[in-house]
Task: structure prediction
Amino acid sequence: MLTGKVWKYGDHVNTDLIIPGRYLDNYDANHLAAHAMEDIDPSFASLVKCGDIIVAGRNFGCGSSREQAPLALKASGVGAVVATSVARIFYRNCINVGLPIIICDIADDLSTGDTIEIDLSVGEIYINGTGKLISFDPLPDFLLDILERGGLIAHMRTQISL
Amino acid sequence: MTFSQKVLSRASGKDVVTGDIVQAKVDLAMSHENSTMVLSSFRDIGAEKIWDPSKVVLLFDHRVPANTIKTAEAHREIRLYAKESRLPNFYDLGEGICHQVLPEKGHVRPGMLIVGSDSHTTTYGALGAFSTGIGATEMAAVWATGEIWMRVPETLRIHVRGKLKPHVRSKDIILKIIGELGADGADYRCVEFTGNTVDSMSISSRMVLSNMSIEMGAKAGICFPDGTTDRWLTDRIQGWDNVETDFGQNSTPDEEEKFDISTLVPQVACPHQVDNVCNVTNVEGIRIDQAVLGSCTNGRLEDLEAAEALLRGRMVHRDVRFIVVPASREIYIEASRRGILASLASSGAVIVNPGCGPCLGGHQGILAAGERCISTTNRNFRGRMGSPSAEVFLASPDTVAASAILGKITDPRKV
Ligand code: SF4
Result:
């Protein structure tokens, strides 16, 4: 179960907004975290807390294949991303770096600062306060497996050692 | 079978239907500067050898020559790795942008399954390859196993009909399509571009369509191979012989959109989204500080030619920096041989070395706060080309050149 405070954004939040190209010559997690969401929300990097959840509208993560985008969010403490729809490379990158990503149309029910609980394997989001329960299609088992191991690297390691 | 079903059936070794999740064998894997990230994940996985070095292409294009010490060190690491591992397909800085160099060097063939750690890997669809972008860690897994999971996508066929008016190009067509369908209009689907407009296009013009399919969320964006493709490949692949002719052209797509472009006028994507598209006439007169001609979208010979034809005998406006970036060394040499570069330079253009140039805001032409740029590149996201308060407009080579002359967004038909 993931529980966290919501940071809410709109549609088409692209990878340049999540981590601008000018910071990509350094892959250090702290460096990426320090600039996460900088061009869309300059307060994000300094205020985000471990376990917070990003909630957004359509086409989250569109644009570049840069894996630094989900890495920057993960490094800054984000525990999950929930969006109405997600660009495909970003979706894959999230799983591969071990950042839970959920497709669910929930943004209209939430504001920044709300608290939600997510059950990844059942496919449910519970909104604290209103008590509303919203279901989503859980990830296929093989992707949940990768997430549970913390990402593709850890997953591959177990595969190779088999 | 649709194009996607055909390619993914072959690559996975069984007959697939749309929606299946398959484990597919990759025919070609490309990485650029982010090879450093790929290599680091590859080592973390504990893999020892690349599954098939002949199927991996590495190349530097994003920050060439190195712009910072960090970049220089990253380049050095990959350069050494390529040497030690005797990778047969390593291109150091100076060859140009991956999406131009790979087709030019004959790495791309119709019907291939190609992955690249770059979102515009869709470009190779112009030669009939199923080609898509993935992240660095996933690329590391491909290096280790040569395989990747894929969902067999739905097909969106985009039928384009009509003859283009002068100074209207494939860039205008794709901007129009993205404007109509939206930045997620093709999400997760394979786009097939068909129709007599596409049939009569050069490979360079088709690459513009395939390249920008990702800007509407497509997994792949293809043009069916034909005589034009054949001739292009014959020049680049020794002994090229087209054996396959059925790529699923006659299959029924899940959805079809039709565009008649015979009355299309030049298009402009306004800040800060690629689908924020209008006719050039709606934004004429907006002052610009910089104009950029280049990128994996429009840095090819026909693009340089179009700009040069408009600029010949004229000067770039004194308040504008006009930056020209040939997409590859081959294009650079040919443009230079034909006098195009000399002519552009005489008009006041700044010609930089082949590569990504200012496209991603890391190098060679970064925008200051509040500045405005018109560019032939493919993304106008906030902060993409420098300051988050700068603005980027996307347009064709003709519109960019016309705007560079007058110092404001200009309809190329009026210059
Ligand atoms: S030219 Fe621009 S869009 Fe193309 S690969 Fe380079 S940075 Fe990416």
